[in-house]
Specification:
The chain is an alpha/beta fold. Helices cover about 40% and strands about 20% of the residues. It contains 22 helices and 29 strands. It has a five-stranded parallel β-sheet with strand order 7-4-3-11-23. Strands 13-20-14-15-16 form a five-stranded parallel β-sheet. Strand 1 and strand 2 form a beta hairpin. Helix 17 packs antiparallel against helix 18.
């Protein structure tokens, strides 16, 4: 065999290595030899690193980042930091990977709540959503939001949703989205009581089993939530001003359910009027729509309804219906949009009249019957009836009943203004010792300096001494002239001047003049019925953003949250209102007043980009384009 010498040399070599191995490691049992680690063969650093790299590529989850189970926790075995970081950076290539390892005990953050302040937010409107989205998740607060409505509603486009110009889902944003992004909590429940002394709220929610619409009584689930700080953003509720029949015979227009009902009711009336053998008088009654209140909401609702009728209904329904359609708007003031600049109010009023939207101005509603609104002319006192097929109440707001409970739980004398929660310049509710804050429609900022200025102006005009003894008493016109001098420095006094007429007769003497003491009481009465800022989405949004910045700045320091002297300053960014036929009015501070189609473009652009999420921006933009190209969807879903 020619290979025999080679085989013999290989056999001798194996025997020699075996002898050497036995000399280095004495004989032992087979179990000990199996458990003995292999000899550490010296290698160069470069060769060792290349080998480790190949190992990482083959078994990334089992090499330097391998784990052993200790008490149910995964613990990393020893390795240098650089190798561990390199291994973590590579993606796991196994089809089924292990769950991520928990951090070591010294890296676990402190338990949530330890040393942190608990903030409970009531509501899901403009003030609440602005506060939640603006407060950093890293701030030392545990936030709990409580609201029976689990979404935010973009109210400026509510009239558009009521007529199909935009879809309802396009202007709502789930409240859980910003809450979940920051790791906070949300309870779908209604706050029914507040204990300011114990810093506790009582909430109530319906059993989910009661949502089957079977008509059975729900068992309520009631629970308490403690707080360190309470942010009240519950808004306001519609105000009927005690007018009989409003709640029974009118629709309110404040929530998405109201818009949905309005859309359904309007379509239903057109369908009824289309049926055979309907008398003309009945058609006229069905197709008469009355909007009570000529503020921004009422005006935009009437404008959107006008667009729907003449841009879509006129194309799809028999033409004989259109002459019977009547849209009326009723208001106590002499112009629509009376709170806007006089030029805007005049333009909008003239625009409505030219569009055949009947403006019943200087009219006070005395009663709402099932088929007619009873109105009284403010100038002549003459009464008349306005028949309707559908009436919508858009006239004013009042204090939320929950805020009344908050007032009752605070020390007596701290909440004399029963129209809204009185707050200081930092939005802290008076009498709460800095534990309750309020934003939006439920809050008003007390302006003590403006009241002091009003007293000084009266004393100066009536030539009074420090004790309040005056040489003369002032009549109504003299009081107005005196207060007007301070309007430039204290704009709040302008509202006082505008509301003196209703109170002057009560506090004036028989000679038609008012003493200093009577003026002081009248001033308090008038101021208690006023708000320092308008009840608009713009105000609520800025207050929520300011309060979030204030909480973040105080960084959980209770002393600063109670005693910090910063001040909320409202920055009016302008007023917009849609008036129909793609036209709008815009009052832009520092720029100009824009009217017509150009303002309509500004209005549509602003309302689109002002949505609270990118999702809503795309939805609203697509709805507006769809409506322009294909018209509104006038389908009606019947239960």
């Amino acid at each position: 065999d020619c290979f025999a010498p080679r085989r013999e040399r290989a056999t001798h070599a194996r025997r020699a290595r075996s002898v050497t191995s036995r000399r280095r490691f004495p004989a032992s049992s087979s179990r000990e030899r199996a458990n003995r680690p292999p000899p550490d063969r010296p290698r160069s650093g470069a060769r060792r690193q290349r080998s480790l790299s190949r190992l990482f590529e083959m078994f990334p989850a089992a090499s330097m980042t391998s784990r052993v189970a200790l008490g149910g926790a995964a613990v990393r075995t020893g390795a240098n930091a650089k190798a561990k970081a390199k291994a973590r950076a590579r993606p796991v290539r196994a089809a089924i990977s292990e769950p991520p390892a928990a951090p070591a005990s010294e890296q676990v953050p402190a338990a949530r709540g330890a040393g942190r302040k608990k903030v409970v937010v009531l509501g899901s409107g403009w003030g609440a959503i602005s506060f939640v989205k603006s407060l950093p998740a890293s701030a030392p607060y545990d936030v709990v939001l409580v609201s029976p409505r689990n979404y935010f509603l973009y109210t400026p486009l509510l009239p558009g949703a009521a007529t199909g110009a935009v879809e309802e889902r396009s202007i709502v944003e789930p409240i859980r989205r910003p809450i979940a992004e920051k790791g906070w909590k949300y309870y779908e429940a209604a706050c029914i009581d507040v204990d300011a002394t114990a810093k506790k709220i009582t909430c109530r929610a319906a059993d989910p089993e009661c949502f089957d619409d079977k008509g059975k009584d729900c068992e309520w689930h009631t629970f308490d939530v403690d707080y360190d700080y309470l942010v009240t953003a519950v808004g306001a509720v519609p105000n009927t001003f005690g007018v009989p029949g409003v709640e029974d015979n009118c629709m309110f227009f404040k929530e998405i359910v109201h818009a949905s009902r309005f859309r359904r009711e309007v379509n239903e009336r057109f369908e009824r009027a289309t049926l055979p053998d309907v008398p003309e008088e009945r058609m006229r009654e069905l197709l008469t729509f009355v909007v009570i209140g000529a503020g921004p909401t009422g005006v935009e609702l009437a404008a959107e309804l006008y667009d729907m009728v003449y841009q879509d209904v006129a194309k799809m329904y028999p033409s004989r219906l259109i002459p019977f359609v009547s849209i009326k708007i009723i208001d106590l003031q002499e112009k629509i949009l009376s709170a806007y600049d006089r030029r805007i109010a005049e333009y909008a009023t003239d625009f409505f009249q030219r569009a055949n939207i009947e403006c019943l101005l200087n009219k006070q509603v005395g009663e709402v019957r099932p088929d007619a609104v009873v109105i009284t002319d403010k100038i002549t006192g003459e009464k008349s009836e306005v028949p309707f097929g559908l009436a919508v109440w858009c006239s004013g707001i009042k204090l939320n009943p929950l805020c009344e409970k908050i007032m009752d739980s605070l020390p007596e004398g701290t909440q004399e203004n029963r129209r809204s929660l009185a707050c200081d310049k930092n939005l802290r509710v008076n009498g709460s010792n800095g534990s309750i804050f309020a934003v939006g429609d439920c809050a008003t900022i007390v302006r003590p300096r403006s009241m002091s200025k009003a007293m000084e102006l009266y004393k100066s005009a009536a030539k009074c001494d420090d004790a309040g003894d005056c040489e003369i008493d002032l009549d109504k016109d003299q009081i107005k002239a005196a207060l007007t001098k301070g309007v430039e420095e204290f704009p709040h006094l302008e509202e006082v001047v505008n509301n003196i007429d209703d109170k002057f007769a009560v506090f004036a003497q028989a000679n038609g003049r008012c003493t200093f003491d009577g003026f002081s009481k009248m001033l308090t009465e008038v101021d208690n019925g006023l708000r320092a800022l308008p009840a608009t989405a713009q105000v609520a949004k800025q207050e929520g953003e300011y309060l979030a910045a204030f909480f973040a700045q105080c960084d959980g320091d209770a002393a600063r949250l109670i005693g910090d002297e910063t001040k909320f300053e409202y920055n009016h960014k302008g007023s917009l209102a849609y008036i129909g036929k793609d036209a709008a009015v815009a009052d832009i501070p520092g720029f100009t007043i824009v009217k017509g189609i150009a303002a309509g473009v500004i209005w549509k652009s602003f309302e689109t980009i002002s949505q609270v999420s990118v999702r809503n921006i795309f939805l609203v933009a697509s709805d507006m384009i769809r409506t322009k190209l294909f018209g509104r969807d006038i389908s009606r879903f019947v239960d």
